[in-house]
Amino acid sequence: MELSSSESTIAQANRFLDSVREPRSEDDAARNVAELERIKDEMGMRGFSTPFAALTSATRNEDLDENEIRELKKQVRKMKELANAKKFTLNRVIVALAANRIAQRLLSRNRTEILSALPLNGNYIVQLVRHGEHAVTAYSRLLDELSAAGSELEKSIIVKVEHPVGSKKVVETIKLMSDQKIEARVKRVYGEDARVLSTEVRTEGEMLVRSKSVRACIASAYAVRAASKAAKGFDAELRADPKMRSYLDVLTSHGFSDMSALDNDDDKYFMIMEALAKAGLAAKAKEGYVLEEGLAEHVEERRRHLRGETARLASDDMALDLFRYYMSTPARKREGEPLFPGLSAGLSLKQVRMFDTLSKELGVKDAGSILLEKLDAERLSAGIKGDLFGAALFSMRSRKPVAWCAEFFSVGEEELKEAREKVHALLGGTDRSKKFMELVKGARGKRVK
Questions:
Q1: CA–CA separation, 356 and 370 (whole Å)
Q2: Higher per-residue pLDDT: 426 or 100
Q3: Is 310 within a domain?
Q4: Are residues 169 and 26 part of one domain?
Q5: Cα–Cα dist 181/193, whole Å
Q6: Is the same domain home to 226 and 190?
Q7: 152: helix, coil or strand?
Q8: What is the distance between the alpha carbons of residues 429 and 396, in angstroms, rounded to a whole number?
Q9: pLDDT of residue 65
C-alpha cells in the first residue's frame, strides 16, 4: 500500500521518536535536537500545524446525490483520522524537541538529576499514566507553579537615573516595585544632584516558563521522579508484609507503580488482575476482580500516601533546583543561557514565595527573602565571581556550615570563605550599598503581605 507524503512523514517521525534514548553527552542531545528540528520544519511545510483545514473545504460541497454523499463521508472519516495523526505526531515532536533542548542545558551544567525522567521521545502522558494518579496530581500542581494560569499581574517601575560619579555623569537603569516618591528616593540614594530621566510602568504576567511544551517537560519529569522516590520509600516498609510484597512485585514486573494507572485501560487491568489472582491476591467477581480481604485496605492506604507525598516531593525538588539556580547564576547568564529554555531571568514577588517551603530544609528564616536580597543586590557584585556571590550571601544568612554551602553550590570551600568577606564588606560596609538595599527592600515591603 502506497503511503501519502503526510503519512510517510508521520511514520518517519514516530520511528525516530521511538528510537530516542537518554543522551550521554551534550553532543548526543544536540544531534537529537537537530533531527527533531528538521522533522518539525518538514511538518510545517506539509501543513501539520493546521491539520483540519482540508476538512472544512471538503464538507462544503453541495448538490451531491446519495452515492456521492456516502463516498464523501468515507473520505471525511479518513481525513479526520489523518488530521488527528498529524496533530498527535506534531505535538509529540514539539514535546520531544523541548525535552532534548532541556537535556542539552542540563548536560552542559552537569546537572543530570532529572535527565532520565524527561520525556525525550515526546510521550510524557504515557510516563505519567504508568506512574499512577499521584504522578498526574503532582504534574498538575507543578504546571500551576510554572505557568501564568490564575496568577495576578504585577507592576514594576523602570527608572532611568543620571547621577555624578567624580567629574562624569553616569546613567543607570533600576527596577522598583513601587511608584511612590521616586525622585525623593533616588536623590536619597544617589545624592541631590541625581536626576530621574524617565520612568516606565510595566505590567508583567507571572509566567515562570514561557513555553507550554517546556512546562510540560519540566512538570512531568519532576512528577515522575518524585513518584518513584515516594513509592520506593513507602514500599520499603510495606514489603515487610508478604502479601504486599507479592502485590508490588506483580505491578513492577509489568511496568506499573500503581493500580490507578489501569483505570482507563481494560486490557491492562485484566492482565494485572489475572497475575494477582495466580498469586492468590485476587479473585474473580461478577464484574472483573476483587482484591483479597485486607489487601485492598493496604492498597488504598498506599494510594492516599503516594498522592500527597509525590506532590510534596515534586514541588520541593523543583523549588530546590530553581532556588540554587537563581542564587548561583548571574543575571546576564540567566538572560542568555537559562537553565530551561524560556525560563524567566527575573522573579516576581509571587513567584519567590514558592521557595518559602524550603526555609527549614535550607536552615534559613525565610528562603524567599534571601533570594530577593540576592536578586536586588547582584548589580553591586562587580569583582565577585558570579556563582560565588549568591553562595556567599546564602552562607552568611543560613545556619548551615560553610562546608555544606560549598557542596550545595558546587564551589570550593576556601573561595567561598573569601567571597563571604567581600560580600559582607559590600552589603554591610558601605553607606551606598546600605541605602540601596533600603531602597529596594522598602519598595518590596509595600508589596509583600
A1: 10
A2: 100
A3: no
A4: no
A5: 16
A6: no
A7: coil
A8: 14
A9: 62
Number of independent structural domains in the chain: 4
Confidence of residue 387 (pLDDT cuts 50, 70, 90): confident
Same-domain pairing of 297 and 406? no
Closest CA relative to residue 318, chosen from 152, 151, 143, 149: 143
Q: What is the DSSP letter of 18?
A: H
Q: How many Cα atoms occupy the beta-carbon half-sphere of 421 within 13 Å?
A: 5
**334/341 Cα distance (integer angstroms):** 10
Position 72 scores a pLDDT of 63
Q: Where do the DSSP E strands lie in 72-194?
A: 153-165, 168-176
Are residues 88 and 171 both part of a single domain?
no
- Residue 432 has a pLDDT of 46
> Does residue 430 register a pLDDT over 60?
no
Note down the domain range covering 288: 123-149+211-305
Copy the grid coordinates of residue 220: 512531568
Rounded Cα gap, residues 112 and 239, in angstroms: 30
Q: What is the pLDDT of residue 52?
A: 64
Side chain identity, residue 433 = S
Chain centroid to CA 97: 15
* 145 and 201 part of one domain: no
Instruction: Please name every residue paired with 155 in a beta bridge, in sequence order, or none if there are none.
Output: 203
What is the amino acid identity at position 251? L
Instruction: For 239-277, write each residue's pLDDT tens digit.
Output: 777 778 888 888 888 777 776 666 666 777 788 888 888
Supply the pTM of this predicted model: 0.74
Which of 119, 139, 172 is where one domain is finished?
119
Q: In this structure, are 98 and 11 located in the same domain?
A: yes
Mean pLDDT, the chain, rounded, equals 82
Identify whether residues 67 and 190 lie together within a single domain: no
Which domain-ending residue is among 187, 205, 223? 205
In a shared domain, residues 25 and 55: yes
Residue 333 covered by a domain? no
Q: Over 50: is that where the pLDDT of 376 sits?
A: yes
